[in-house]
């Protein structure tokens, strides 16, 4: 690639631990490197840094996402960094980093400063603090659901600034019909013997009231009363602040006589394997998800998946597997639908829906399009 076409892109996020934002950051950084660009990432570090650096990207450990007034002291430092590194695209993926980036960017010469991009990864509380995510010269929405949220809650956002770029899954990582090897399966069922030889109903997601764990427990109880040989798997960790809620869930299971019918796996690095051996994967979030990556991963593996008909999960299911749409607030109808999917599974269609390569190509196209836009015309 000619030197004049080589871009330097800086992505900012709080940390590089785990999660969809982090994964997307790594994927975009790797794609930039593969296309001959320079990929920079700024965060407070984390376990994904090694993978990032191995891909050829550069990491800068700054506490850019710390919710403290001290973080404002980074504004001047970041402005200097942007000039020294000759950054072409400044891409903020979270609110605190976006504020620091915006304040640094706003104080620069519009003729020479980078282009400012934000990605709205979630449907945040509507306030001035969250508004910053709509202030990019280009605003990436990770689904049509998020685009509608921006236009509804921040109507002063120019619609032409918003570009929907759906999150994607790599078909090589999630091939249709894939199963984990027998050694892994044996180890898993040795750890969770009560799950063996059962219809596995899996709820992925961290332990929090928003993920629908109480609905899940009620559904398992109703399925058991119907005589179905199900075992529930709750796959996700509980932070220190959520331990009390975890104890409440365990108490509810005991009081309903379901202790042997539901297993808490805790945080796992082998979620793909668990999804692949499941009979049914559920998304029961009580609030709409911005996208629903785990739902898409399960579908790409060919595993029947069901979720409440709202937000990004509803968007994915309508496009790929409408048989998995569940009515919100209708526990009887939901139980009937889930029982039907367990007793007479409807195959998942094979296809190239929401591929990762589309997400990456659309993101890099956006960067390159902005880079061709004269800076004086694009300033705010």
Number of helices: 15
Q: What is the CATH fold-level name of the largest domain?
A: Rossmann fold
For the largest sheet, list the strands in their spatial order: 3-2-1-4-5-6-7
Structural class: alpha/beta
Separation, N- and C-terminal Cα atoms: 31 Å
The largest sheet is: 7 strands, parallel
Unreliable spans? none
Strand content: 15-25%
Helical content stands at 40-55%
Oligomer: single chain
Gyration radius (Cα, Å) is 22 Å
CATH superfamily of the largest domain: Glycogen Phosphorylase B
Can you tell me about this structure?
The strands form two sheets. This protein has a seven-stranded parallel beta sheet with strand order 3-2-1-4-5-6-7, with helices on both faces. The protein has 15 helices and 13 strands. With 380 residues, the chain is an alpha/beta fold. Helix 3 crosses helix 4 (95-106), helix 8 (213-225) crosses helix 13 and helix 11 packs parallel to helix 12. It folds into two domains: 3-168 and 357-378, Glycogen Phosphorylase B (Rossmann fold); 182-343, Glycogen Phosphorylase B (Rossmann fold, 3-Layer(aba) Sandwich). Helix 5 links the parallel strand 5 (115-120) and strand 6 (138-141).
């Amino acid at each position: 690639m000619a030197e004049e076409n080589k871009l330097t892109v800086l992505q900012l996020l709080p940390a590089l631990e785990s999660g969809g934002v982090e994964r997307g950051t790594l994927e975009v950084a790797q794609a930039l490197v593969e296309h001959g660009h320079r990929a920079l990432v700024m965060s407070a570090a984390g376990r994904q840094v090694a993978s990032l650096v191995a891909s050829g990207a550069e990491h800068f450990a700054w506490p850019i996402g710390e919710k403290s007034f001290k973080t404002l002291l980074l504004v001047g430092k970041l402005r200097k960094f942007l000039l020294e590194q000759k950054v072409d695209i400044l891409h903020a993926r979270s609110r605190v980093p976006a504020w620091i980036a915006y304040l640094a960017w706003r104080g620069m010469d519009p003729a020479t400063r980078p282009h400012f991009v934000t990605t709205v990864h979630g449907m945040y509380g509507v306030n001035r603090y969250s508004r910053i995510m709509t202030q990019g010269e280009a605003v990436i929405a990770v689904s049509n659901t998020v685009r509608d949220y921006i236009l509804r809650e921040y109507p002063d956002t120019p619609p032409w600034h918003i570009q929907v770029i759906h999150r994607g899954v790599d078909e090589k990582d999630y091939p249709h019909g894939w199963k984990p090897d027998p050694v892994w399966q044996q180890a898993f069922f040795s750890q969770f013997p009560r799950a063996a030889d059962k219809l596995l109903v899996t709820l992925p997601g961290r332990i929090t009231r928003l993920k629908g764990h109480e609905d899940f427990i009620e559904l398992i109880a109703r399925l058991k009363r119907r005589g179905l040989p199900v075992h529930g798997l709750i796959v996700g960790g509980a932070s220190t602040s959520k331990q009390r809620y975890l104890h409440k869930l365990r108490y509810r299971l005991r009081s309903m006589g379901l202790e042997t019918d539901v297993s808490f796996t805790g945080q796992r690095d082998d979620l793909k394997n668990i999804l692949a051996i499941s009979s049914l994967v559920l998304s029961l979030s009580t609030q709409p998800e911005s996208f629903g990556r785990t739902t898409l991963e399960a579908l790409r593996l060919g595993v029947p998946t069901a979720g409440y008909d709202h937000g990004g999960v509803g968007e994915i299911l309508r496009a790929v597997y409408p048989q998995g749409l569940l009515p919100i607030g209708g526990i009887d109808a939901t139980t009937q639908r889930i029982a039907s999917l367990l007793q007479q599974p409807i195959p998942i269609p094979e296809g190239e829906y929401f591929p990762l390569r589309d997400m990456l190509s659309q993101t890099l196209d956006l960067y390159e399009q902005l880079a061709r836009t004269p800076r004086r015309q694009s300033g705010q």
